[in-house]
């Protein structure tokens, strides 16, 4: 990552606009998909966090933002509140199915209805432009100029290489659970005549209360002769006072010692590639190739190694660490699912300051009936919750884009509570409020406040940063050097799309 004086890191991008349409992977319209695009030579995790909070996503090093009011299938950024997430019945069914397969070796023959065959995050968007000049920018040294350059936040850099960590494994999760007091063992039955024990949990399930009332009525009917003493409420059993099973409870369900299979989840850093990533590259690529051919019907020569590397391994995000961040650091990773010593699925993820962002999921087609797309999403939510214990502000799980006009992509809305990003104000809106609007129109302003606007729009384009001839300068200084330059409209469009924070930090490359 390029540094300036004071160890400040910068993002360098080339903006390409978005006038040309291309084939849509959802409705198959040959020229209906429109998006803005940028090639990112290097990017800080905070800049990418700010960009995805304005509707951008990455495919390798290419960063794109759908033209929401023009594209055929509007794609709304969706995030799940990981800490508040509770698995639904269908989610529990998937977790139990996987555990049953591990313990008994029973592989379902068919995909369950309602569970998507495809990965959690769709194949990323537009084709990369051919005019990117890689070498010229890659070796450009940044030089400080004047005091026109605004202050930019420093990123702490750690010298030691990142060690790969194993997220959400059963041993670690069990240790975490041991430290949480079990309220079922501390609650005691109330003494007759003095009311409820204050040590008991204040909340109880409605179905438990209804059951208790039914028992009381039954006892009253059985003693209708008036001889029996007044019946006191039956003390609830430990099972009645317990909280619902958490996501981690289902994932770490105890299995018999003689399990048929062994599943291990490994986290390996993909950029810069760790030794573990390099050692497993070929095996990972082979699974990707089989997945693309079986699930997406690619011909054998299409899922090439270079495509795999460019799309799922290359990333503009360098490894970063922060004192208040997760132990594994920030950046791009592969979360590998190893079954009996071989890779069967890989989740490509980015760990950012406030979220885990899912990029893509591919798996061996022999295990499609295990609903690995949904299973990996649940594991990644649990992983987000694990990271949040180390970094309190990291509490969201981003599932990519929610496409309401494409029925098979609506399943992302089942991971609740979740929000969609308003394409006009960039405010987060609960999905329950968004669905009625999207039922009426493919494109919709989701923020219901008619007076709300884009609070982070850059009003003075002259403050946008430019990298020109190896020097960093505000656009105002650049335009003075390049008298008669005709790119102000393009720079204004770019600045409006990335917002004030990013425009004043990201370096817009100008040849």
Describe this structure in words.
The protein is 29% helix and 19% strand. The protein is of the alpha+beta class and 511 residues long. The strands form 3 sheets. An 8-stranded mixed β-sheet has the order 8-9-10-11-12-7-13-14, with helices on both faces. The two termini are 20 Å apart.
Index terms:
7-stranded mixed β-sheet; 17 strands; alpha+beta; 511 residues; 8-stranded mixed β-sheet; 19% strand; single chain
Structure, briefly:
The chain has helices at residues 45-52, 89-104, 134-138, 170-178, 183-186, 206-222, 238-241, 247-251, 275-279, 281-295, 305-313, 372-388, 431-440, 475-481, 488-503; strands at residues 3-4, 8-9, 12-17, 35-42, 57-59, 62-66, 76-81, 263-271, 331-339, 342-351, 355-363, 396-402, 418-421, 428-430, 465-468, 471-474, 507-510. With 511 residues, it is of the alpha+beta class.
* Structural class by SSE content: alpha+beta
Helix content: 25-40%
Radius of gyration from CA coordinates = 27 Å
Number of helices: 15
Mean residue pLDDT? 82
Q: Would you report the number of β strands? A: 17
Major sheet attributes: 8 strands, mixed
From the N-terminal CA to the C-terminal CA, the straight-line distance is 20 Å
Task: Give the strand line-up of the largest sheet.
Answer: 8-9-10-11-12-7-13-14
Gross morphology is: globular
Spans where pLDDT lies below 50 across 5 or more residues: 113-124, 138-196, 223-234
Task: Please indicate the percent range of residues in DSSP E strands (runs of 2 or more).
Answer: 15-25%
